Amino acid sequence: xxxLAGGLTVEVERAYRxxxxxxxxxxxxxxxxxxxxxxxxxxxxxxxxxxxxxxLERPDRGRVTFDGETWSDTDGRIWVDPRLRRVGFLHQEYxxxxxLTVRGNVAYGLRRIDKAERSQRxxxxxxxxxxxxxxxxxxGELSGGQRQRVALARAVASRPRLLLLDEPLSALDAPTRDRxxxxxxxxLVDLGVPAIVVTHDRAEALGLGDxxxxxxxxxxxxxxxxxxxxxxxxxxxxxTIVGVESVIPARVRERAxxxxxxxxxxxxxxxxxxGIDGDEVLACIRAEEVVLRVGAxxxxxxxxxxxxxxxxxxxxxxxxxxxxDAGFELAALITPQALDELDLRVGAxxxxxxxxxxxxxxxxxxRAEHVP
Length: 372
Hints:
Layout: E1 7-15, E2 21-29, E3 35-39, H1 46-54, E4 61-66, E5 69-73, E6 78-79, E7 87-90, H2 102-107, H3 115-128, H4 144-156, E8 162-166, H5 174-191, E9 195-199, H6 202-208, E10 211-216, E11 219-225, H7 226-231, H8 236-242, E12 246-256, E13 259-264, E14 267-272, E15 280-285, E16 291-293, E17 304-316, E18 319-325, E19 329-334, H9 336-342, E20 349-354, E21 360-363
Parallel strand pairs: 3-9, 3-10, 7-8, 8-9
Antiparallel strand pairs: 1-2, 1-4, 4-5, 5-6, 10-11, 12-13, 12-15, 13-14, 15-21, 16-20, 17-18, 17-20, 18-19
């Protein structure tokens, strides 16, 4: 594993007494800037890896390099102070100073620069993050979403080369989390700074990330685009963790009667309209929500009847996984009895039936639309 110019190399091992050993190794290209998600269940080592990158925790062995610069190397006894790494860190609880105003919190990391420049930069950030009208309030007077924007503004005030976010939405209630996911993605894209986000939430990974690093038991199990991980998990354990077999890029064509009409690879999909922003979405369908029919479609309540061809049949415990080509890749799970009764074979045509409530849409912001 070499040191990447315009990239991040992580090879760290950290053992905890009476606890797990984290031994993670991966390379991530950060040019052009993107959002990398460190994803995995609780206790998989995500936050440990993030803190080792930031310099907030020393690995027992290994090294971290950024853009060809060595930040830490236990063999070479190299350790760069966290302040010199120029990393912005957004804590899980935001860690705003309760006694300071919004303006004071944003300005906190700029004490070493000229007063006039500091004031100008703070004013620009307050405007950019739409918190100018909150400048004189204290954190206790802010909503969860407002606190998040203040914390993010403070994290980028010093113009970091890398932005690290540890479970950035976990402190919010579920409705606020759903509402702010798309907003956080837009902010990260607009900043044009490479970001690494720790999360165990599937919707967060889908809504925020470009690249996904999956950690299981302290080790990296897969590195790929978010879409690739969800559609082609590296193994059964990763598949279990991500929990969604079909993730389909789609565009909203119509919003009417509480429904979304989507276009995906020239096919129409219908989903429930949950108030999602934007026209670019990822339509997520779990394999167990897909029902297979043979012959002509029958009248039923399901809105989606997708002609498809069977690409692969494979046993998965007591079930059979069916991989389909419906213009996009789609997965279904059926019983061996259904396989025999429907007389399914590789290459055979079927109708994949999916109810509209089973198509879960996650907002997906295109980077090209937001990079200045």
